[in-house]
Amino acid sequence: MKSTIEALLVLLALASPLAADPLAIAVPASTETVGVGGDADDPAIWVNPTDPAQSLILGTDKQGGLFVYGLDGTERAFLPDGRLNNVDVRPFMLGGKPVALAGASKRDDDTLVFYIIDSEGVRHAEPFAHPAIPADMPGVKHIYGFAMAQDASATYALVNFKSGDILQYRIEDQAGQLRLTLARQWKVGSQPEGMVADDRAGHIYVGEEDIGIWRYPLDPALPAEPLSVATIPSACLPRDDVEGLAVHESPKGRYLVASAQGIHRAAIFLLDGEAIPACTALVEIAAGAVDGVTETDGLDVTSAALPGHPEGVLVMMDDQNAGYTTNFKVIDWAAISANLP
């Protein structure tokens, strides 16, 4: 009898290994964007394919529109388009020409708005605004989070709502005009916001703010069956809220990066195919030449080599700056990677 119990304990130990505490990493920001008197929320990084030094950071202001910054943090443009919440960007073919397509969720009127980014700068796409709630879905209410995704066949807009609903739209080009077609709809139990698509692996990650992180298949032909990635509380998310999500492809591995607002950190999960992402590290953006990050909301990453940042950057929203402003901090990913196993 004793040997049977011991054998069962061994099997349980193999099936459920004790998770090591995440690494505690502290790095300073390289630079920061100019302060916003409104309410900075979520960034997206556009990498210029011909001149990386001219890459841009897009940042939403929940009270007024979309800011455009250079990598040095200077403001390049402001588009006063209303209460924009989350922003994301993907390459796109529009009217037979390669461009970058950025999208954002607009809280004033429950719409999705889109921008074209190319050598001429950032401008409105045509049509600019698209209703985000289908007429036959009256229970879907209060637009919130947004992300974009791509697979071999299509580019998608992902939008969620405070009602818990998540809608996946297919974005199509019709002779230079954008058209959105609903491809799939599902729901979580409470308020979501942060989302990111891992285009390469075919996954969508959704942050349910007070609950944790879920993973779904990207293919809209598949059922939106959830896989729990992390719960609140847990090692990488000890307190709510989970906010922005992004995916980084490092020489050391592929990572899901999550904004752990309750502890002012970026939580890093190692991605390994279909395995549940492993909680790996908690990154503090500590004070250095610029102040550290507190009350962080949205974030984005790129693994593209940029001037002074050979492994790309992490951009995080910072809620507290001098003069009661908010802004975005730019962090060298190589400084983080040097501390990862």
Radius of gyration: 20 Å
Instruction: State the strand order across the main sheet.
Output: 1-22-21-20-19
Under CATH, the topology can be stated as Neuraminidase
CATH class: Mainly Beta
What percent of residues adopt helix (DSSP H or I)?
under 10%
Structural class: mainly beta
**Average pLDDT, all residues:** 93
Question: How many E strands?
Answer: 25
CA(first)-CA(last) distance: 42 Å
- What CATH architecture do you see? 6 Propeller
Number of domains: 1
Polypeptide structure, described:
The protein has helices at 2-15, 333-337, and strands at 23-28, 31-32, 40-46, 56-61, 65-70, 75-79, 84-94, 97-106, 111-118, 121-131, 143-150, 155-161, 165-174, 177-187, 192-198, 203-208, 212-217, 227-231, 242-250, 253-260, 265-271, 278-286, 299-302, 313-318, 327-332. With 341 residues, the protein is mostly beta strands. It has a single domain, classed as Neuraminidase (6 Propeller), CATH 2.120.10. Strands 1-22-21-20-19 form a 5-stranded mixed beta sheet. A 4-stranded antiparallel beta sheet has the order 2-25-24-23. The longest helix has 14 residues, at 2-15.
Q: Care to give the gist of this entry?
A:
With 341 residues, the protein is mainly beta. The protein has helices at 2-15, 333-337; strands at residues 23-28, 31-32, 40-46, 56-61, 65-70, 75-79, 84-94, 97-106, 111-118, 121-131, 143-150, 155-161, 165-174, 177-187, 192-198, 203-208, 212-217, 227-231, 242-250, 253-260, 265-271, 278-286, 299-302, 313-318, 327-332. The chain has one domain: TolB, C-terminal domain (Neuraminidase).
